[in-house]
Amino acid sequence: MLRVGFIGLGIMGLPMAKNLLKAGFEMVLFNRTRSKAAALQEMGAVVANTPADVAGLCDVVITIVTDTPDVETILLGENGILEGGHSKLIVVDMSTISPIATQKFATTLAEKGIKLLDAPVSGGDIGAQKGTLTIMVGGDKAAYETCLPIFQVLGKRITHVGPSGSGQMVKMCNQILCAVNMLAVCESLSLAKKTGLDLEAMLNVVIAGAGGSWALENLGTKIVKGELEPAFMIKLIQKDLRLVLETAQKNQLPIPATALAHQFFAALEATGEGELGTQAMIKVYERLANFKMNG
Amino acid sequence: MLRVGFIGLGIMGLPMAKNLLKAGFEMVLFNRTRSKAAALQEMGAVVANTPADVAGLCDVVITIVTDTPDVETILLGENGILEGGHSKLIVVDMSTISPIATQKFATTLAEKGIKLLDAPVSGGDIGAQKGTLTIMVGGDKAAYETCLPIFQVLGKRITHVGPSGSGQMVKMCNQILCAVNMLAVCESLSLAKKTGLDLEAMLNVVIAGAGGSWALENLGTKIVKGELEPAFMIKLIQKDLRLVLETAQKNQLPIPATALAHQFFAALEATGEGELGTQAMIKVYERLANFKMNG
């Protein structure tokens, strides 16, 4: 069985690492805040002092951290994976980061024979806990197949989508859908509220029809109940949307609806509400049009 | 069994009337273009000379025509339903028209004891043919219950959503979702194409995740195949979006994403493409960013 390294025990990484341990993988962990590894250490995981140490001890190292510079530090920085890694190592970066940077990292690691897969996920912390994440993987196909038993513990819908960077690109496309579908949900529910409709009856009808979406079914329902806690946090989708807009611009593609969603989320960051869930976009409409969804 | 009148044998009305005949209802028809009634006449339907005649002969009269003025003429015009109707008549308007006009029509008809339900549908011509429409009904609850056996022949998801005009309002909310979800689909697929992703692999991943929607699954797939024939025609959603924007404005609600979708559809009307399906919105992005989805 593969010995698996795991770097980044955040809201996503911690339950994912736990699922791998439960599935019987030997694991070596590294996290900047070492205390987060304690529970997993009790379950039998080894805790290493640096990413380089993790890389030296494992067949596969998974990284899942916040942003492009964090991944760069872990991969290429002092005491990083490039420094400690061997020629048969596969690194699986499950963070959501720049596809262009991903391709550069892959090229650098390849000089030492290390393979990098980009494998961002969708499905939130609940998907991480339940092992039902959607995983979109870019990079070497043989390395993907080696890692498949790991992915099958972490997720349900696992797809190799193309060469290095493709996983990140598909994730960008996914985030466009999430952001713009939220505009649709908020405008629809705002009109329903403003015109005095019974919101539950309205949702019941439209969810099942040609206007239906994951966002409507899951987050529209939360909006009606006044539940704005994060399934996915505004400040995290904003990081992703900055990558999306940058990538679109480099490809000379105008994406005005995505840009609008990004601006509305920015308005919520400006009022200190960036740690609410993306469905809190409804607050922008409430303020623009002076109404309250609840009450 | 109820004797059912039916006015408006268009792309939606004709298969709906046929389904009611097959289900055993006695039917009386009226259509401006009389020849369209011929096939149904052979199946046993009676063809009347005016809407007033239909109203005099039936318990329930269904109307399904294009726009608010058409409904007004049928209901309140010369030889119309008000003129020929009796005090126990129920009129079911299944067109998509102004919710405010609907409320006025209901008030006028009520002077003669006639009840008006607004019962717009979602699900397109295929839903009409298969009897799987979603039907959202506003108006008197007892009249709704009387008509339920009719609705159950025509559709699958049938909901009484509130007082007169509510059915039309829910339909407006539905059209917001359809229009803005299409922006999401087009921006996502445009980025995928511009960055060289395998579009089928990309769709396969994102359809099942948090970015998923009816629009993505049904119309995104058509875009990738280059199929732009109408499931729902641009010039018809434009009529609905004009009602949506007017209703939002009267309620002092800005809906910028819906307005953007409306403008992009207007661009396609300007190039003579208003009879394509709503998924032809992708052409706007192709022109803006100088690329082709296919080839």
Write out key terms for the chains shown.
9 strands; Rossmann fold; N-(1-d-carboxylethyl)-l-norvaline Dehydrogenase, domain 2; three-stranded mixed beta sheet; homodimer; 2 domains; six-stranded parallel beta sheet
- How many helix segments of chain A? 14
Query: Radius of gyration of chain A, Cα only, in angstroms?
Result: 20 Å
Strand order of the largest sheet of chain A: 3-2-1-4-5-6
The helix content of chain A, as a percent range, equals: 40-55%
Overall geometry of chain A comes to elongated
Subunit arrangement of the protein:
homodimer
State the CATH class of the largest domain in chain A.
Alpha Beta
How many discrete structural domains of chain A?
Answer: 2
Greatest contact pair? A-B, 71 and 71 residues
Question: Mean pLDDT of chain A, nearest integer?
Answer: 96
Secondary structure class of chain A reads alpha/beta
CATH fold field value of the largest domain in chain A: Rossmann fold
Q: How much of the sequence of chain A is in beta strands?
A: 5-15%
CATH architecture of the largest domain in chain A: 3-Layer(aba) Sandwich
Output the helix-strand order of chain A. Answer: EHEHEHEHHEHEEHEHEHHHHHH
What's the CATH H-level homologous superfamily of the largest domain in chain A? NAD(P)-binding Rossmann-like Domain
Q: Could you name the ranges of chain A where pLDDT drops below 50 across 5 or more consecutive residues?
A: none
Please tally the β strands of chain A and state the result.
Answer: 9
CA(first)-CA(last) distance of chain A: 56 Å
